[in-house]
Design a protein that fits this description.
Elements lengths: L3 E7 L1 H29 L11 H33 L6 H21 L15 H23 L8 H20 L2 E3 L5 E3 L3 H19 L2 H15 L6 H15 L14 H13 L1 H13 L5 H4 L3 H23 L2 H7 L3 H30 L7 H34 L12 H7 L1 H31 L5 E7 L4 H7 L25 H4 L2 H25 L15 H12 L14 H7 L34 H9 L1 H4 L10 H4 L7 H10 L12 H18 L11 H11 L11
Antiparallel strand pairs: 1-4, 2-3
Helix pairs in contact: 1-2, 1-3, 1-17, 2-3, 2-7, 2-14, 3-4, 4-5, 5-6, 5-7, 5-8, 5-20, 6-20, 7-12, 7-14, 8-10, 8-20, 10-12, 12-14, 12-15, 14-15, 14-17, 15-16, 15-17, 21-28, 23-28, 27-28
Length: about 725
């Protein structure tokens, strides 16, 4: 018999991550609400630091890495200790992890409004912060695996499988996506360019959703939902299929974000096929969660915790069905670049991540404070207000997306675009944007109610920082050998409260008792998809055909491009014309992969709140761009684009051009030898030409050649002009 050992669970670190989670929920959702208002009321863009373009990455990072990230660590630190019957391996590492993660979040909150960004979706943070994130993730991994290796339970429960896969996959994703060469402490260029960088970005971006917003939350679902329902997980075998199929298939699906782009067809097809395959394991997990409630459905109506969790699992099922459907090319041709995608994303973010986090918080807080929830009635109000918020947010955006797609593609009987002015579609969907504001407000109000309820729960209870418990020591090798003997007694109860383990164990139990083998096989499975897709794109030259007329950006154009990135313009404008009749009629010749070979980072965009800009060069005189940045409504009445008057007054800084040219040459951009010595004078010469054009076109500002606007104009006038398009006959 094993000796009974006494020890304590660490609830203090769980509480810290929980408090951080609901505080940053308020912050992230408030920023999102402000942005929703900025779209319908452009005058609320207070430049230069609080414009929509600069706030957008702040919002996504606050929700994903601050709110959800802290929620993940809260759930992992609570459940892992109890599943392995051991305190976290190191209290010191736990707190280093906590404080460094908050430092990352606060630095992101400072740098992103300053315009210090790489522009990559979900990977906007500058390279020093990437290094800090790597350090935090290593500390988390050491602490997690140290706890697992010193466990008292022999077998690892399903939630821990998902935690292991999350840790290794996020590590791989982050390291590959962060391959960049620094220019300064705040600037860098990725080592990949154009089409290659687009593939790497969406291999990362899609799987950041998969392995940061999904797999750790599935682990939490497998632990907290059975606990809240007081029921064992419906099917152990289904859990096995769900886990291994999901982590293998998910990693291949990233290219479905780039359908009809210049990415090679074979990569697009792989993304589509594996995305559709994802329905099976995703719905297997959803059904495993919902069927866990068999026999407990009568409690759902009266238990707010179960209400939140049930809707969260349903939202997971909806999002993981819709995602594969949006990966079908014929559907993607309609949905991509529209608000349909925004609706889809927020069903997952608000419904799956948001509601499961609230459900876990409502379950955890009374237990850690040894009291009852302050108000079940308030929790129910939070649930219904939040649910209405999701509906009022998502449904109008679905209609907005369908409206955009139909209007963009509509032709008259004479064969011309029915809505040739892009602004026509914007005006049509403004009422739907107002309804989004209503939905966002409701969800935000619900979050305030939830935070108040949790605060009052803690205030009336007594916090249990160290929870005393006991458990038998871990089985020895001899004990395990005897367990395989039919004459030996059955093993003890499963740590998650399930049925007692049978004498003849399932084959999967072998790997469950060997966490390092599980780590190894998880790593192999998630690496296969990335290797098959990325390696040929990087090392097979024919995958990106070259165009001889495509030249590197001039120093002033390069500066303008970096200013475009700083202002977050890619959040509203795409630079990818797809081979559709409506797009070529509206914008010009469809895009070619060779046109992007010097683009670091790529700027294809994900959403068209404004028109595509890939053929913008030469369409308008320089003065048009000058006046458009000063006040878009003067040239486009009804425009919801914010004004950028600071570009007309802020001094143009060219001091970092030599370093940029040097770095880009090292990365393969064919600037001539010693060109960095002449880069500044070259930029000044081009700036003077633009200033002269502006003066001739009626712009009276003095010293305009020294202002940032000339660099922006240089970049916009370059777009799409490298290839010669034959006029239509």
């Amino acid at each position: 018999m094993n000796n009974i050992q006494q020890f304590q669970y660490d609830n203090k670190i769980v509480r810290a991550f929980g408090i951080a989670s609901f505080v940053f929920a308020l912050v992230g959702m408030l920023v999102g609400l402000i942005m929703a208002l900025q779209i319908v009321m452009p005058e609320l863009n207070f430049g230069p630091y609080l414009t929509f373009g600069r706030l957008r990455p702040l919002h996504t990072n606050a929700v994903i890495f601050a709110f959800v990230g802290n929620g993940i660590f809260m759930g992992v630190y609570y459940s892992l200790q109890r599943l392995v019957k051991a305190r976290m391996w190191s209290d010191k590492l736990s707190w280093i992890h906590f404080w460094l993660w908050q430092v990352v979040i606060l630095l992101a909150a400072v740098t992103l409004p300053m315009g210090l960004t790489t522009s990559g979706e979900y990977s906007e943070l500058i390279w020093p912060l990437d290094i800090l994130i790597t350090l935090v993730w290593v500390i988390f991994g050491v602490n997690m695996f140290g706890t697992i290796l010193t466990r008292r339970e022999n077998h690892l429960y399903v939630a821990i499988w998902f935690y292991i896969a999350t840790w290794v996959t996020v590590a791989v994703l982050h390291l590959v996506r962060s391959l960049e060469m620094p220019v300064s402490w705040t600037e860098s260029y990725p080592i990949f360019s154009g089409v290659q960088e687009a593939l790497v970005q969406w291999w990362y971006g899609h799987n950041a959703v998969a392995f940061f917003l999904t797999t750790p939350y599935l682990g939490m679902m497998y632990y907290f939902l059975p606990k809240a329902a007081n029921r064992p997980v419906f099917s152990y075998k289904l859990s096995i299929i769900h886990f291994w199929a999901l982590i293998f298939i998910y990693i291949w699906a990233g290219p479905h974000h780039l359908l009809y782009s210049t990415l090679p067809d074979w990569v697009q097809s792989l993304g589509t096929v594996f995305s559709i395959m994802l329905i099976a394991p995703s719905w297997g997990g959803m059904l495993n969660g919902l069927l866990t409630l068999r026999g407990a459905w009568d409690r759902v109506a009266n238990d707010p915790v179960l209400k939140f969790m049930v809707v969260a699992v349903i939202a997971y099922g909806m999002a993981t069905f819709e995602g594969p459907m949006l990966s079908i090319k014929s559907v993607n041709a309609i949905s991509h670049f529209t608000d349909w995608t925004i609706a889809h994303v927020h069903v997952g973010a608000l419904g799956w991540n948001g509601f499961l986090t609230f459900g876990v918080l409502y379950w955890l807080w009374p237990r850690m404070y040894r009291t009852e929830l302050y108000s079940k009635q308030l929790a129910n109000v939070h649930f219904w207000v939040g649910t209405l918020g999701i509906i009022f947010y998502a449904v109008p955006l679905y209609f907005a997306g369908w409206t955009q797609a139909l209007m963009w593609k509509e032709f008259t009987p004479e064969g011309t675009l029915a809505w040739g002015n892009f602004l026509d579609t914007v005006k049509q969907i403004l009422p739907m944007y107002w309804l989004r504001v209503v939905g966002g407000t409701l969800f935000f109000v619900g979050t305030i109610i939830g935070v108040y309820n949790l605060y009052k729960t803690g205030a009336k209870g007594q916090f249990m920082a160290n929870e005393a418990t006991e458990a038998p020591a871990r089985l020895t090798a001899v004990d395990l050998a005897n367990a395989d003997d039919p004459s030996s007694p059955p093993a003890r109860q499963d740590s998650a409260g399930g049925k007692a383990t049978a004498v003849k164990e399932h084959w999967h139990r072998w790997i469950e008792g060997r966490p390092m083998q599980m780590l190894l096989w998880s790593t192999i499975l998630i690496a296969i998809g990335g290797i098959v897709q990325i390696v040929p794109m990087v090392f097979v030259e024919s995958q990106v055909p070259k165009i001889s007329t495509v030249k590197p950006y001039t120093p002033l154009e390069l500066t303008g491009r970096d200013l475009y990135i700083r202002e977050g313009c890619v959040g509203c404008h795409s630079q990818m014309i797809r081979p559709f009749r409506d797009e070529t009629e509206r914008y010009g010749e469809y895009s070619k992969s060779g046109e992007y070979i010097y683009d670091r980072p790529f700027l294809w965009g994900s959403k068209r709140t404004g028109p595509d800009l890939h053929r913008e060069g030469g369409k308008y005189p320089d003065s048009w761009h000058y006046n458009h940045m000063d006040d878009p409504t003067n040239l486009s009445p009804g425009s919801i684009m914010p004004a950028y008057p600071h570009l007309l007054t802020d001094k143009l800084d060219l001091s970092d051009l030599p370093a940029k040219i040097t770095v880009l040459r090292k990365l393969g951009t064919p600037y001539s030898k010693d060109f960095e010595k002449y880069a500044i004078s070259n930029a000044q010469e081009q700036a003077q030409k633009i200033a002269k054009n502006l003066a001739e076109q009626g712009v009276k500002d003095q010293n305009i050649e020294d202002k940032e606007i000339v660099a922006i104009i240089a970049y916009l006038q370059r777009l799409g002009t490298d290839i010669k398009i034959q006029p239509k006959q």
